[in-house]
Structures are given as structure tokens and as C-alpha cells.
Specification:
Alpha-Beta Plaits; about 1000 residues; 3-stranded antiparallel sheet; mainly alpha
Length: about 1000
Amino acid sequence: MEDAAGTSGLQSRRHESELKLQATEINLEKIDLNLNNLINQKKDLSRQSRQAEKYEQISESIKFYQSIIVYTQWKNNISEIDQKQSFKDKISEETQKCINELAKFQNELNLKKKIETQLDQKKESLNKKNFQIRTEINKYNNELSGINNKKEEINRFLKTIENDKELEKTRVSELEKNKKNLQQQISEPSKINEKKKKILQLINQETELKNKIKQLETIFVNEIQLSLGEEFKFDNIKENKENLKKKINLIQVTIVDLKKNLIKYEKDFHTQDQLIKKLKNKIQGIQDLISRRKKVINQTNQNTQKVYENNKEVLAEIDISSTKLTQIETELKTLNLLTSSKGLSDDSIVNLLKIKKGYEDAVYAALTNELDATLKKSKKRWIKTSFKNIDPIENNLSNFVESPKELNLILSQISLVEDSKEASEKQKNLKVGQSIVDKKGSMWRWDGFISEENQQNKNLIDAQLKIKELVNQQNKFRISLNSLRLKKESQLKVQSELNETLKKENIDLEKNYREYDATQSEFSTLIQKKSLLEFNIKDIKEKIDLHIKEERLSSKELEKIKSMEVSSPKLDNNKNEKEEVQKTIQNLDQQLDKKREEINLIKESIMKEELNESFHKNDLQKTEVRITECLRQIEMLEKREINYIRENKKLENLPNDLREKINHYQGQFNEVQKEITQTISNENETKGFIFNLEKKIEQFNKERENKINEITKIDINLENLKIKEKELRSTIFQRSKIQPEEFENNLKEKQIEITSYEDLKIKLDRLISQREQMGPVNLRAKTEEKIISQSIDELEMEKLDLIQAIEKLRLAINKINNEGKNRLLKAYEEVNKNFSELFKKLFNGGEAKLELVKTDDPLQTGIEIYARPPGKKLSSISLLSGGEKALTAISLIFSIFLINPSPICILDEVDAALDENNVEKFCNILLELKKNTKTKFLIITHHKITMTSIDRVYGVTMAQKGISDIVSVDFEKINLKEAV
């Protein structure tokens, strides 16, 4: 109904306006709350501002009294500075006297030290000479021990080579014997050709016998045919028949026996063949093992040579390391003698310093007299001090040295400069206790003392550092020497193990060769047996074939005799002749068998001899190869032996020469040692004088240091007092913005008398207690009060704007409501009228109406539908039947549709609940609507009546499974119109 009336847009506008109104009212409430809070804050801040004013007045009074107190402190500080300065001047005069005395003693000490330096230089040169001699002695001793070691090694290698040679020679002799035996066997005259000739003769004789037998048989047959009568003929045939039968039986028995023998020989041949294969594999395995052992022996020889070479290198390294160690030890002894005479202990502070490279001379110059002191309880030691407020000098030595904490103070007062000009200028500005050094080792002190390159102390300290370095090197070389000796022992052990391995491998190789020979002979025997069996099998097969042929011939002959068999009496004479012929034939057969057996035996012996000859030739070749290998090995061992013997001869004369050189250098060493002892005694005398002078200097130095320390303490106090004076001056200036001198004049001008310090303190404490009683005070109260007043004014303006906006929104909502009511009531009347008319058309009478549900606001009301079909009471739509409900709903929808028709209307099975009459009515109504409006109706239906009343039909078919198709029919066409 709202869509038809066109009030949906008004509803959304009204909703938006209501939301804006609601948000504006919430903002107004928030502003009211903020305003109330700000007003309360303003009241509190006005109270706090009054309190802040009072606080500031008290603070000003406190500042004034504090300034007066600070001024009195400043005045007292100035008087104290004057007293300290006068005391310092007095001590400085006494210090200067002490310095003059020190200078006298120092000059005398320098003269004595020059003498000591000369003696030191002489002693150092003697020590160097001594060291060189000692180095030469050690070098020749090491060479001597190296030569002895080499000789021992060479003797060991010669023994090993001798053993290897003996093994190879024994092997060669055995192989030579074997070779001779094989050559003899091969060189023996062969009887094969004679036997082959004999076989040919026997074969010829065999053929002759066969021909004779054939002739006799033909003669025998012809005689029987010609001479014998029927009766004798019959007997002979009968007898021949029996003989043939016996012969056939005998042949069959012979064939069976031969076949049995053939099976037995074939079995033996198969077993022999398997044994031969096994032996072949065994021989191959032994050959592989021999080649592997040879490789191992060659590798072991190479490894032995390598170990020998490595051992040589290790011995050379041991010689070098021991020589260097001796040099270091000699140098250490010399340096220890030098430093021990100067009294430098291991606990000296010089051993605890870590100096950056290039700054050593500067540090030694600065700490000349302090480097031999310790941190422990000794006569000369360093202790911790607790001086504060001492400013370090510019570019001080603590930047270049890592030292114990006890040295921090002195290092912080020693400056480093690049050249002497800069040092001379800076020396004038030095404070008490400060000094300057440069990289060369020169020193400039605050009291005017200058020392340029103190070479003696520098040498002493360098010697101490050199000792440390040499001790480290000594330890390294000792470790290196021990490791090299262990390496040498391990290599000797490896060498002995390799020799043992070589010996063992040679023994095993000999065993393998013996095993190979035994297996080879066994293999040859088996080959002979196999060839003999092969020959026998072949012969038996030939015999079986011959007997089978003979059996066939005898069978054919027997068949002939059976066919020729007749009964006729013959003479006795012919019988005797026949028997004689038969006997001769039998004798010839026996001779033929003997010839065949003889031929077979000769063939077997020929085969054996040929096989033996081939095996002997192969063995001979292998033996010759092994002999050449052994000879090559012996030659190589002899070469090595010659080299070792030559080397040994070279080494024989060397030890005597070396011993002579050692004795010569030992004499020189003893002479130099005497000179060193004389120099040391002279040096000790000089040291005694120096020691006495140094004691006196030390006493004066202590006195000077005490004076300097007193001056340093006074300077520190003065420095602190001056710092305090500056601080008090700055405090007075900060509080009163004037200098202390002006402050005194101001007090005089204001006629303010400075009372005692205690009275001022009491007044100040009273004011401070008043200020503290006030508690926490907000000093920003005035500024915050101004800010809050501005915020209140801004919020008042915002509040006024929001009230005006609320009034405007309420007016707009009322206008929208009035317009919506008018539109809705107008649409309601039109729809009610159309609904009544359409209902009557669909039901052919009756009554229907719409009623608004009672409410004050039409926009918020609902609609109730009342319908009375013909013959029924007026009631609500819910009491109607299904078809009636459908028609009523259709009439209501179309009545709304007529007010505001749309271009397209889709009806989905609205006629489903209608019967045919009502469907026709529904179709008529649709036609009317179509005429009155430009709306196109799209109807989904199953009713035929509905389908007939429309312009175009669309149907969906499925000609094939899973494939649908759309079919359309246009009833507006002429031919279809007539059909419809």
C-alpha cells in the first residue's frame, strides 16, 4: 500500500531525520555535562590561584635569605683561599732547596752510571760472544746425535733389506728348480708321431681283416648255395638262423653293458668337470690374493720410504728447535744476570703494565723510579689513594696503558706530547705533581726538571720485557721439541710395524705361491682324467653305434634266412668245409677286436701326452714371469742397499771432525767465561758506589716527594676552594642576577645589616616551614583558569547551535508525517474502491472492503480485509476457503496494481487453487488489465484454460536424458489463432 501511495521515500527521509534528532539531543546532553564540570573546575582553580600568589611571596623571601647565606659562605671561602696560598708559597721555597741538593747528587750518579754502562756493554758483548760459542757447540752436538741416529736407522734398514733379499733368492732357487724340471719334461723326445704311425698301420690291418671276412662270408654263402643240396642247405640255414639269434642276443647284451659303462663315465665326467671349475675359481682367488699381497708389499715399501723421509725431516726439525732453545736459554741467563743486579723482581709493577705499541719509551721515562715497586707489602710499593676532584691532564698516559688501579692517579697527571717544543711551552703551565713525556723517552716535570732519553733504564726495562718474551718462546720451543720427539718415537714405532708387516706379507706370499703350485698340479691331474673320460665316452658311443648297426644287419640276414628256409638233405663233406670257413671267420673277428682295442689304447696315450705338454708349457711361462719379478725385486733391494752403504760411509768420518770442533769452541767458551766473571766483579764495585748515591738521592727524593705531596694537597684544597667559590658566585648570580661584590653594595644601599649566620638560618627555616605547611600548590592555576573560561564560552556557543538544529529537525519530521498521511489515505480510498469492484466481478456479486486498524497515526496503522462471497456473511479473510482466499488475494493485488501499474508482472501458479470457472474469471480479469494498462504479464501455470487465454506459451522438454530444450508457441500467428 505504501509503495502504491509512494510514501516509502518519505518514510526513509523521516527515519534519517529522527536519527539526526536523536544524535543532536545526545550531543546536547554531553555539552551540558561538560559545562557543569568546567564551571566546577573554574571555582577550584580560582581558589588555587590565590594560594599560588601567597606561595610565590614566601618563595621570594626564601630566595633573598638564601642569597645572603650564600654570600657569607663566599666571603669565608675567599679568606680561606688567601691563607692556603701563603702556606703553599712557603713550602715551595723549601722544595726548591731540596731540588738543588738532588741535582748535585744526580750529576755524581750519572758519572758512575756511565762507567756502569760501559761495563754492561762489555759484559753484554762477552755474553753475546759466549752465546754464539755455546750455539755452535750445541749445533755440533745436535749434528753428532743426528749422525748417530742416522747410522742406527741405516743399519736397521740394511738388516731388513738383507732379509728381503734372502727370501727373494730362496724363492728364485725354488722357481729355477721347477723351471728345469718343466724344461726336461718338455724337451724329452715325443713318441706321439710313432704312435700315430702305428695307429695308421693298425687301421690298415683292420680294414684288410674286414675285407677278408667279407670275402670269406661271400665265399661261404656261395659254396653253400652251389655245393650243398637241399637237405644240407636246410640244415645250414637252420644253423645260421640259430647263430644269428645268438649273435643278436650277444650284441644286445653288449649294448646294455656299454650303456651302463657310458652312464658311469658320464657321471664321473660331470663330477670331474665340477671339481675343475672349483679349482679354477680357487686358482683365480689365489692369483688375486698374490697380486693383492704384491701390491701391499709395494705399498709397504713405499710407506717405509716415506716414514724414513719423514723421520729425516723430524730429526732436522729437532736439531733446529734444540739449537734455538739453547740460544734462548743462553740469552735468558745473560738477561737474568743483568736484571737481577738491578733488583727487578717478578712482582714489579713493570710486569703488570700493558702498553700500546710505540709508547713504551714514554711510559718508562714517566715511571723511571717507580717501575721496580710492587703492589705487595715491600720496602718500595704502591697503595690505593682516595683523592677526589683532581682533574686529569690533557692527553694523559692512562689512554695508552692498561695498569692496576693504584697507578691511575699518577698516569692521569702525566701528559704525552709529539715534540720537545710543545713540551717546553706546556711545562710553564703545569700544576704541582704534573709532568710531560714524549715517545722518545724525554720528560719535563712541573718543578723544572728535564730528563732526555734515559737510555740505561730503558735498556733495563726492555731487558725485563725481553725476558718475558723469551720465557714464552722457551716454553713454546720446549713444547714443540717434546711433540717432535714424540713424533719421532711414533714414526720409529710405525717403521718397525711396517717392517713386521712386510716380513709377514712376504711369508704369506710364499705360502700362497706354494698353495698355487699344489692347486695347479691338482688341476692338471683332473684335466687329464677329464680328457681320458671324454675319450672313453666317445669310444663307448662309437661302439654302441657299431653294435646297433651290426644288430640291424644280423636281423635283416635272419629275415632272409627265414624266407629261404627249406627242407632238403645234403652231404657231410660240405658240412665240414662250412665249419672250417666259419672258424676262420671267427678267428678273423677276434683279430679285428684286438686291433680295435690296441688302437683305442694308443689314442688315449696320445691324448695324455698332448695335454701334459700344454700344461708344462703354461707352467714354464708362469715360472719365468715369477723369476723375473723376483730378480727385479732383488735388483731394487740391492740398489737401496748400495745407497744406504754409501750414506753410511759418508757418515763414518763426520763424528771425529765434529768432536774436534766442539773441543775447540769449548776452549773459547771457558776463556770468555773468565773475562765475564772479571767484568762482573768490576761492575759490582761500581754498583756499590751507585747504591750509596742512590740511597742519598732516595732520601732527598722522599723529602722532595713529601713536600710535593703537601703542595699537591694544598693545590687540591685550593682547587676545591676555587671551585666552591665559582659555584657560590654562580649561585648568587642565579638568585640575584648580580655578582657577589655588587650584592654587598646593594645590601648597603638598602641599609640591610647582615646578622649572624645562625639568625639568618632561623629566619630561613621559619619561611621554609610556612611554605611546606601550605602543602602542594598549583603554580599554573591562573593560566589554567583562563583556558577553562575560554572552553566554557566555546561550549555555550555550541549548545545554542544544537538547540536551534533540534527545532529545525522537529519541524521537518512534522511536514513529512502530514504529507505521508495525505498520500496514504488517498491511496487507501482508491484501492478500497478497486478491490470492491474486482471482488464483485470475480465472485459475480458479494461484497469486499478494507478497513484501517484503529490508531491515531495512519502511517503506523495496519489493514484488515473483510469479504462476503454471494450467499455468505461478511467476515475476515482468514475464515474463507482456499479458492475464496486466492480470488480475494488476486482482487486485492490487482486493485493495488491498478493504482501504480508496473511494466512487467510475474504470476507464479496463482490459479493453482482455483477451479475451472474461477480460472476463466481470472483470465478475463487479466485481459481487462492488459487492455487498461501497458503491463506485460508472465504467468507460470499448469491450467489449460489459462494457457488458451494467453498470447505465447514457453515449455521445457527433455528429448535426451540430461539435455533440456525450450519450445515456444506464438498464438498471435494466423494459423495458430484459428487452432486455438
